[in-house]
Amino acid sequence: MKLDVLSSENDQDPWYRKGLSFSCTQCGNCCTGGPGYVWISTLEIGRLAEFLHLTPAQVIEQYCRKINNRFSLTERINRGNYDCIFLREEPTTRVVEGQTIRTTKRVCSIYPVRPLQCRTWPFWDSTLTSEQSWKQGTQRCPGVNHGKKYTFKQIETIRTATDWPKQSPGSTK
User: Rounded to an integer, what is the distance from CA 44 to the centroid of its chain?
Assistant: First the structure.
């Protein structure tokens, strides 16, 4: 399937032609919120199964739900939000003005094998439709407009990926 380059209403070139900045802070904000879907392919289920030392059938049974003919990761309700089944809260400490503060951070427990949908955030069609949608769709993400600058070509490669891009947003390699 070929995906067309998104263009702005008043211009032939997409509004993000000059590139966009993003660095994943691994805050977990994109892994929680209202109910939704995290689509996962059968190839990715196999990768996840290998990572978790399970069979693909076990991964589907324990962590997926079938919607029509597709699979999505399941969610669990946590403080009124729908968290991805693989979002974990880990205890952490930080020192502020000499005081040790205990808190938690949210992390993806399958980050190395996260699905394509997660790997391509925030370069989704829904966030790239317009500058306004970029701002609205990424309000909860502290990594948007910070860090690494992605060129138009890199954004399009990520946006149109059908399997894991060689370097996805947030990866350190």
Answer: 14
Rounded to two decimals, what is the model's pTM? 0.79
**Cβ distance 40 to 48 under 8 Å?**
yes
What are the tokens at 23?
A: 């660095």
d(CA 87, CA 157): 27
Bridge partners, residue 96, by sequence: 99
Residue type at position 131 = E
Q: Report CA-CA distances (Å) from 5 to 8, 14, 148, 153, 163.
A: 10, 7, 22, 10, 18
> What is the SS3 assignment for 53?
coil
pLDDT tens digits, 150-165: 999 999 999 999 988 6
Answer yes or no: is 118 within a domain: yes
Over the stretch 27-76, which tens digit does the pLDDT of each residue have? 888 899 899 999 999 999 999 999 999 999 999 999 999 999 999 999 99
- The domain of 46 spans 20-159
The total domain count for the chain is 1
Coil, strand or helix at 108: strand
Whether 1 is covered by a domain: the verdict is no
Q: And the tokens for 60? A: 């589907």
DSSP 113: G
